């Protein structure tokens, strides 16, 4: 049975059968983006409302299927991408509380359950990843995260690796600064970038814990993300203001932190004085072992 696959300069041990050249697509992704909102409660801020958020994008010519999913407790976005023809899929940043929703969507869309591979942009501190539970719920899928994250996974990614699904692929770009293991995943035609916490909409991830370094984050964003085409869509791991997407051009011009000089940026980040994430003491230890502390679902967790 086929699987979403990874192209690396040195294939991960034990997963040689998963490695092949990434499919290339030169066509533009001029797809439709649509947001379907459920009923909203008026008594809570937008990012805390209990609504079901989907952003839908399908390129009829090339067959890219895309879903943007929202988890309201931690304001986390999960992204599902698939080749509509081969049904191969990748799931970015799944959340423990929404595993059943995500698995059901994979089934509803007729995707092959063994190829909905969960990929994490980094080791999260504000929520527990759904990776481990997804591996139990969808037997045969494989987890992936940066080798610099310190977390266990079936596949450890490094700069330049490609996660392939059908004729599409995601290029892994190391963007440390929020954490050592942060990665941005760029679609092979550079029309979409999944930036994790490195670059948010009009903001960025904090740098005061988990190996955070403000100067490293500044360099990562400017060299690895701001060098992408201006029209490239930016999809972050979180948003707290009700926004779902930005562009590289918008963030280069309008981001209130990253339009500053390096010195100004470091000063801003060193004086945020934010409270620590509510779930950090539980989330980080769990996320180091695929999100499940007592049950090992990853091949190399033992």
From TrEMBL:
<dbReference type="InterPro" id="IPR044528">
    <property type="entry name" value="POD-like_MBL-fold"/>
</dbReference>
<keyword id="KW-0496">Mitochondrion</keyword>
<keyword id="KW-0223">Dioxygenase</keyword>
<dbReference type="GO" id="GO:0005739">
    <property type="term" value="C:mitochondrion"/>
</dbReference>
<dbReference type="GO" id="GO:0006749">
    <property type="term" value="P:glutathione metabolic process"/>
</dbReference>
<dbReference type="InterPro" id="IPR001279">
    <property type="entry name" value="Metallo-B-lactamas"/>
</dbReference>
<dbReference type="InterPro" id="IPR036866">
    <property type="entry name" value="RibonucZ/Hydroxyglut_hydro"/>
</dbReference>
<keyword id="KW-0809">Transit peptide</keyword>
<dbReference type="GO" id="GO:0050313">
    <property type="term" value="F:sulfur dioxygenase activity"/>
</dbReference>
<keyword id="KW-0007">Acetylation</keyword>
<comment type="subunit">
    <text>Homodimer. Monomer. Interacts with TST. May interact with RELA.</text>
</comment>
<feature type="domain" description="Metallo-beta-lactamase">
    <location>
        <begin position="75"/>
        <end position="238"/>
    </location>
</feature>
<keyword id="KW-0408">Iron</keyword>
<keyword id="KW-0479">Metal-binding</keyword>
<dbReference type="GO" id="GO:0046872">
    <property type="term" value="F:metal ion binding"/>
</dbReference>
<keyword id="KW-0560">Oxidoreductase</keyword>
<dbReference type="GO" id="GO:0070813">
    <property type="term" value="P:hydrogen sulfide metabolic process"/>
</dbReference>
<protein>
    <recommendedName>
        <fullName>Persulfide dioxygenase ETHE1, mitochondrial</fullName>
        <ecNumber>1.13.11.18</ecNumber>
    </recommendedName>
</protein>
<comment type="similarity">
    <text>Belongs to the metallo-beta-lactamase superfamily. Glyoxalase II family.</text>
</comment>
<dbReference type="Pfam" id="PF00753">
    <property type="entry name" value="Lactamase_B"/>
</dbReference>
<dbReference type="InterPro" id="IPR051682">
    <property type="entry name" value="Mito_Persulfide_Diox"/>
</dbReference>
């Amino acid at each position: 049975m086929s699987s979403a696959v990874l192209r690396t300069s040195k294939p991960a041990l034990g997963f040689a059968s998963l490695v092949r050249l990434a499919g290339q697509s030169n066509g533009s992704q001029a797809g439709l983006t649509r947001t379907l909102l459920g009923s909203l409660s008026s008594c809570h801020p937008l990012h805390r409302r209990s609504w079901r958020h989907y952003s839908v994008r399908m390129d009829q010519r090339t067959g890219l299927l895309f879903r943007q999913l929202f988890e309201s407790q931690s304001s986390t976005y999960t992204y599902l991408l698939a080749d509509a023809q081969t049904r191969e899929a990748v799931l970015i940043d799944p959340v423990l509380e929404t595993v059943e929703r995500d698995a059901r969507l994979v089934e509803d869309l007729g995707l092959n359950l063994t190829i909905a591979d969960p990929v994490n942009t980094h080791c999260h501190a504000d929520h527990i990843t759904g990776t481990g539970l997804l591996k139990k719920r969808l037997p045969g899928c494989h987890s992936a995260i940066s080798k610099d994250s310190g977390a266990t996974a079936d596949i450890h990614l490094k700069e330049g690796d490609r996660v392939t699904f059908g004729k599409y692929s995601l290029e892994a770009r190391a963007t440390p600064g929020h954490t050592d293991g942060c990665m941005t995943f760029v679609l092979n035609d550079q029309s979409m970038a999944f930036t994790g916490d490195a670059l948010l909409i009009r903001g960025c991830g904090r740098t005061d814990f988990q190996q955070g370094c403000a100067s490293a984050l500044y360099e990562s964003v400017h060299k690895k993300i701001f060098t992408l085409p201006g029209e490239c869509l930016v999809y972050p791991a979180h948003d707290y203001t009700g926004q779902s997407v930005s562009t590289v051009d918008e963030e280069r011009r309008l981001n209130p932190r990253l339009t500053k000089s390096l010195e100004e940026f470091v000063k801003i980040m060193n004086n945020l004085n934010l409270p620590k994430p509510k779930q950090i003491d539980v989330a980080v230890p769990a996320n180091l072992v695929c999100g499940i502390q007592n049950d090992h679902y990853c091949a190399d967790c033992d």
